[in-house]
Amino acid sequence: MVEAVELAPDLAVLRASIANVYFAGTRDSWVLIDTGVPGWGPKIRAAAEKRFGETKPKAILLTHGHFDHAACAMELAKFWEVPVYAHRMEFPYLTGQSAYPQKDPTVGGAMAFLSRFFPSRTVNIGTVLKELPESHEIPGLAGWRWIEAPGHAPGQVCFWQEAGRIIVAGDALATVDLDSWRKLIAWKQEIAKPPSPFNYNWELARQSVLTIAALKPRILACGHGDPVAGENVAAQLEAFAGKFEPPKHGRYSTEPAHTNENGVFYEPPAPKDNLPKIAAGAAAGVFVVAGLLYNRRRKKPE
């Protein structure tokens, strides 16, 4: 039985392969935050039914539109007959108008190594897509607000509940070090950079981390890694934000891509990537198998 792990009375997480999805709210009114990778729609529905019974969500919210966060959005929106909300700067990518800034496998690290086989385009959900309200309120989720946190994606947002000091941060941060093979396979819980090969603007990413740290959350729930909770989370975030730096090399390390409401209109030149794809493919296979074996043994987050 697929079951979400409760983090707070009105928030639960479902580990959907490499990315998390979140159930926010109560049986009276709830929303789904992010929709995971392809193939997870039925499991997400099963977890929702387990938690909320026959009550369907008021909406689906996307922290951003990358394929591992939006893959099941159309399927679930049609099943529940609800809209999907995202920041307007994500619209070009979620309607097929533009691809995201090209991923950067030359930035270094485990996820960069694997990213050669990840797509730059995502799903087209234009028929169910709606813009997050300018008021920053969240439809169907009283007491929560959305906050801009770009750098990883142009329209990346976080969802913040001040009363519980809870933030669902998407990929503005991670709680597993995606740059380290050892930590990634071990799924070591720690506050870490957003997924490096997909960060198109490192200065905006740094500013977003500072924005999140300033909120002093008690629960930090990211798209990748087990959520972290406790009164020491704020101090950990502050320390991490103070030492956050862009990588020393890579396509976007010194110059960002430029985007607007129509999508990407400038990308800096790509460094030469000499790594054979066959080697990356073999490593990807090893990683997936190791990850699946390890995830079976994982304990629920504290």
Question: Number of helical segments?
Answer: 9
Largest sheet: 7 strands, mixed
CATH H-level homologous superfamily name: Ribonuclease Z/Hydroxyacylglutathione hydrolase-like
Strand order, biggest sheet? 1-2-3-4-5-6-7
Percent strand: 15-25%
CATH topology: Metallo-beta-lactamase, Chain A
CATH first level: which class? Alpha Beta
Structural class by helix and strand composition: alpha/beta
Report the average pLDDT across residues: 92
In words, what does this structure look like?
The mean pLDDT is 92. Strand 15 (258-260) and strand 16 (263-266) form a beta hairpin. It is built from nine helices and 16 strands. It has a single domain (5-246, 274-295), classed as Metallo-beta-lactamase, Chain A, CATH 3.60.15. 27% of the residues lie in helices and 22% in strands. It has helices at 41-52, 67-70, 73-80, 91-94, 110-114, 181-186, 202-214, 233-242, 277-295; strands at residues 5-8, 11-16, 19-26, 29-33, 59-61, 84-86, 129-131, 144-148, 157-161, 166-170, 174-176, 189-192, 219-222, 228-229, 258-260, 263-266. The chain has 302 residues and is an alpha/beta fold. The protein has a seven-stranded mixed sheet with strand order 1-2-3-4-5-6-7, with helices on one face. Helix 7 packs antiparallel against helix 8 (233-242).
Give a short synopsis of this structure.
By secondary structure, the chain is α/β, with parallel strands linked by helices. Helices cover 27% and strands 22% of the residues. The chain has a single domain (5-246, 274-295), classed as Metallo-beta-lactamase, Chain A (4-Layer Sandwich).
